[in-house]
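#struct-pred
JK: can someone run the complex with zinc ion? inputs below
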Amino acid sequence: MSKTIFTGPIIFTNAKENPILNSGAVLIDDGEILAVGKLSEIQRINPDATVENLGDGLLTPGLVNLHHHLYSSLARGWNPSGNPPENFPEVLERIWWKLDKALQMEDIHYSAIVGLGESIRSGVTAVIDHHASYGTITGSLDAIAEAYQIVGQKGSICFELSDRAGFNAFDSGLNETINAFKKWPGISKNNRLSAMIGLHASMTLSDDSLGKIADTFKDHDAGYHFHLAEDKSDQDNCRAKYKMRITERFAEYGILGDRSLAVHGVHLDETEVKLLAGSATNLAICARSNQNNAVGFPEWWKYAGVNIGLGTDGIGSDIISEAKSTLYASRHVRKSPNFGFGEIGELLLESNPEIFGKITGHRVGRLATGYPADMVLWRYNSPTPISSENIWGHYLYGLYNHQADSVWVNGENVLSEGQFSRFDYNETLVKARILAQKLWERI
Ligand SMILES: [Zn+2]
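RT: done, structure tokens with the ligand placed:
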């Protein structure tokens, strides 16, 4: 790949200095950003580089989604039979566990392509997935990894270990995780994909199982990815069975750490917050999912010292909409109409890339020298001026729910003027609809 200078749109670099560039340019070579600055200056120093004028719009760094369930894509429009759930355990039993157990290999694969494709179109270039398919365990992570490859996406994958489908299924999940690290190490410079150790949640993991997991991975450098106190019932279960709170239980098994990712953290007490902060464990909050499941809302502004970011929890792939919902829910809960605007901008634009970097070893989230060329071109012609002071307002009220025009991952143009470069998206959707129909009939 030869040196290319991209110019034309307003550029938001997300760097501390000169975050907005008019008449700016990004120089890339071999998938990496070599320089960002004034077009005239970059051209003068690199006269041999090809210049590509992208036209009007806004060029931004790719976004990060810290917690997705790509296997949920084929649930859209499904009407589960039986009585509707009355509480969170019933949501799991009557919807998600029924669905995940019925998934076959092709469903898993196409579901992941759909979710990753929608992520790219939402400007997300790094997705951390949390997978479950208790009817098809062995090879399921390969089917997902292949989907990342087809779409051209980067991220991290894991299988959510749980006792819920019996001991044999638990062991198969453990083997799937062990094998994952042979193919996608926790940290690898040359790999777009890495693996994590996935856990469902405290309530579906016995002490025997947690002990087995901790023993298996005691010398491993990968982080854990787990649901933490999403619903009060999880804490109640833990206190009744183990006489302690969930974060304390996980700490005993060495599951916390700066490369681990807890998700939700809705029902935490002060001791647990201190444990997360003290161990530098990362926390992804998922406002839309929490509201949808009526499990409560994490008062994350009280979680002093915890690294907090945002995930969509499979409710969609659009992380800007997630940020918008987090803002509204936080204001609603605090009864404070001026809370959180800048703070939530920091969660999405600062914390999410930083947490992704700690987990995978890949720096992302800025258009700056030394970063991979993960870029999003939005055909966004704003009715108001764009500046470094108000760019977050344009994300929340202009770019949200917008489809990206073009996207680059590691300098590769994976979406060009709305069309995917590596595969036929419409064919994928035709296939997904057929698979979804059969899946619904099977459940
Ligand atoms: Zn989740």
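RT: quick notes.
The chain has two domains: 4-62+364-420, 63-360.
The CA atoms of residues 62 and 110 lie 23 Å apart.
JK: thanks, will look after standup
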